């Protein structure tokens, strides 16, 4: 194995100078740096990531923290994870996955000192992990957000804006009775789960503002639960002519269930999905129009924000809300 | 911050002894080790993962390598990733995600020396990454496998066995014309993609052995492509009474498409999915019977195999084929 001493001998400089170049710990004159880098190239010297990390106190590793057990991650979560890994790669970072279910476990991970920073997924309104990361002075960002709008950096989908876009579309078509179907992860750990809470709040407020009578329906996060919700809705609420659906997993079953219950889409009921991906709108069967909010951009922007924070710890927190875009593929129409 | 010297002073031992305990680099008498560990606990000393990694030449990090661009990962891939992360956690390892599209990029990652070992996802028949890892002498395992059955360690689903199980079930019901629908990722990079190749080969061989005329249908990996395949199949091959489907993404659209084309499931056509998850069988809508092969076990077993290899580099390669289990929820029946 080629050592730093070999590089120093070849370049005719001291070992300390090579260390400065390799670890980026001190400025080295360009001509000297060039000699060192040429010697490294000639000898095939390879920087050791761990040695550099220890020397610079920067591992260039960030952690993506998600719940291991409580929640079956959906396709949006997958696109967030893969986009985050790609964005980190482009910035010279590695992403480690931390499947962590409680604060004590997260603290144990943090104590190892492996990562430069942390991104939290599946954030709740009063997320206890935020307090821990703040106390431990670990740079971090949220994918999603707490109910504190002035708090730490976050990148989130603009659920309230998507509700407004969806209601505008359906009321412009003439609908006066628009229900909201929420895919609910269930269980006490998810009582303050951001997407569900924010979508419901915005829907209730916007319905009141427009003089519409609200109807919130809950379903489990899978297709068969979606079908059951459709069966119940068709039986109990024949006056509903439009439904907005927040849950990509329940969506197809919900539409199949409406049709099976004799409610044609969109002739009898218009269906509009909230916060699905453009890929789903382009390929799902049955086809469902949506207010699209790409998960991949969420992952990319969150990584960029964290990398910038690591470069400048004094930067103010960054709060990004990604808007949704209405994409219509025929599941909405004027009511009969 | 508490240093190793503080621990040494408290325990009344030398700094070297503390280092042996912390880094596991040399055996220390149990009584002495107990004193050192008590001192670490009293003082709140925390091991630094990076320092320990550098000292022991073990980072306790393994990489999960998957293609970043060519392929939209499905729900099975997600369950593999999350299960691998959880299994690694339990063994004291971290998992980094490497979204890597070519061998040169993988080599660049490896050169950093960050990881102790590598797991490859989405393996092709003659995967060039295998040659690179072998040459670099990096411990690795495959999730999936190449066409070399005596090669490096792998954990794969037993696609041939699943085909046999599926054909047994359908021919026992009396079907004599059973088609195979393959969700094809498409593109030259996937020409030797293991699941597709192995399933097709087994289907053709098993059909011949049973005197059945085979029919292979290809679809893109999404619901709408599944629907198109169903429409074409219903129009061109009215004699087909059974279909096995290898693609979780195309499946729901395929069944919806059959029904829309006037072919009732299972009355006119029996549909059996191959290699989906038990969760999908339990929750999918429309409900489809399947030969189930859980992705989470694939991720768990692959991590365990790699960790064991790291502990004993001389161990022979481990070749694991996970069998599928027939789970029936009503989408198959005797032909009319």
Automatic annotation (TrEMBL), chains A, B:
Gene3D superfamilies: 3.40.50.2300, lambda repressor-like DNA-binding domains
The keyword Transcription belongs to this UniProt entry's keyword annotation: yes
Name of the protein described by the UniProt record: Catabolite control protein A
Assigned keywords, A-Z: DNA-binding, Transcription, Transcription regulation
SMART domains assigned: HTH_LACI
Classification via InterPro entries: HTH_LacI, LacI/GalR-like_sensor, Lambda_DNA-bd_dom_sf, Peripla_BP_I
One Pfam assignment: LacI
Entry superkingdom: Bacteria
Coiled coil feature spans: none
Record-linked PANTHER family: LACI-RELATED TRANSCRIPTIONAL REPRESSOR, LACTOSE OPERON REPRESSOR
SUPFAM superfamilies in alphabetical order: lambda repressor-like DNA-binding domains (SSF47413), Periplasmic binding protein-like I (SSF53822)
Keyword Cytoplasm appears in the UniProt entry: no
A GO molecular function held by the record: transcription cis-regulatory region binding
Span of domain HTH lacI-type: 2-56
């Amino acid at each position: 194995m080629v050592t730093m001493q070999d590089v120093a001998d070849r370049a005719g400089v001291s070992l300390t100078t090579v260390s400065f170049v390799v670890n980026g710990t001190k400025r080295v004159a360009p001509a000297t740096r060039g000699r060192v880098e040429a010697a490294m190239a000639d000898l095939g010297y390879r920087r050791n990531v761990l040695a550099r990390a220890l020397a610079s106190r920067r591992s260039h590793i960030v952690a993506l923290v998600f719940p291991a057990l409580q929640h079956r991650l959906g396709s949006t979560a997958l696109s967030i994870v893969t986009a985050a890994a790609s964005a980190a790669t482009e910035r010279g970072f590695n992403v480690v996955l931390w499947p962590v279910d409680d604060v004590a476990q997260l603290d144990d991970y943090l104590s190892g000192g492996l990562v430069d920073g942390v991104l939290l997924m599946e954030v709740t309104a009063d997320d206890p992990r935020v307090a821990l990361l703040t106390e431990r002075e670990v740079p971090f960002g949220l994918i999603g957000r707490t109910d504190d709008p002035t708090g730490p950096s976050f990148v989130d989908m603009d659920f309230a804006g998507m509700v407004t876009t969806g209601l505008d579309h359906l009321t412009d078509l003439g609908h006066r009775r628009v229900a909201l179907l929420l895919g609910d992860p269930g269980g006490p750990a998810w009582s303050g789960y951001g997407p569900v809470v924010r979508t419901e709040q915005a829907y209730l407020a916007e319905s009141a503002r427009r003089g519409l009578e609200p109807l919130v329906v809950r379903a489990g996060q899978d297709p068969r639960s979606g079908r059951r919700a459709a069966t119940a809705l068709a039986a109990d609420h024949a006056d509903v002519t439009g439904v907005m659906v927040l849950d990509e997993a329940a969506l197809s079953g919900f539409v199949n269930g409406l049709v099976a219950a004799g409610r044609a889409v969109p002739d009898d009921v218009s269906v509009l999905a909230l916060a699905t991906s453009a890929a789903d709108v382009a390929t799902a069967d049955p086809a469902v129009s949506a207010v699209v909010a790409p998960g991949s951009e969420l992952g990319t922007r969150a990584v960029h924000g964290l990398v910038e924070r690591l470069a400048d710890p004094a930067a103010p927190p960054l709060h990004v809300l990604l808007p949704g875009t209405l994409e219509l593929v025929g599941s909405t129409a004027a009511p009969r």
